[in-house]
Fold this sequence. Notes:
Distance between the termini: 24 Å
Number of strands: 0
Oligomer: single chain
Amino acid sequence: xxxxxxxxxxxxxxxxxxxxxxxxxxxxxxxxxxxxxxxxxxxxxxxxxxxxxxxxxxxxxxxxxxxxxxxxxxxxxxxxxxxxxxxxxxxxxxxxxxxxxxxxxxxxxxxxxxxxxxxxxxxxxxxxxxxxxxxxxxxxxxxxxxxxxxxxxxxxxxxxxxxxxxxxxxxxxxxxxxxxxxxxxxxxxxxxxxxxxxxxxxxxxxxxxxxxxxxxxxxxxxxxxxxxxxxxxxxxxxxxxxxxxxxxxxxxxxxx
Length: 256
């Protein structure tokens, strides 16, 4: 399905990315600028407001540590929040269209990966002159694929439910906000008290952040084999969500 519609999907994703900042003076330059501003603002919060420090890093290293944890969270957050109401908004247009409804959430997830890639490029350029640069950067496709699978799983499930229950979108925004605080973005797992560490491990973002940090900085607190299990789990969940969504596509049009 995706292979057969890849050209249409690519064209629609490209249009979606261009329309995001259409009419603005800087246009698509807002993608890297937005990434810089967002990463900088979070660094200010953690370093200046919270005054957080990590014993293994200096100030610049800790900025990279925060960025490496923030990037997967922001990518997942934008993918989910952008796709949750995408199917409901497209039902009228797609009722008599040959474009598969399953590709609508996929389009929004792929669009969310554009600013993610801009942020990654910025962080990699910041890492290259430091001692944190190394062969572990070649590991980056593993967490990227895991993030894509997890985002698609959530997008297909939530966008289908949101057709019948639009309030799901508000619930998703609240949960994503909660994820920001219970995800090890500005802190490491070993900094969490033992009695509260279970909540961190129940958060799927923890394993994504660990994988991204390892690929970018070469540091981690979970075994490497955890990434393989997490990737397999995300892939299986994505396939199950896609099959479930496809099965209920005819019923979704009844809520138009």
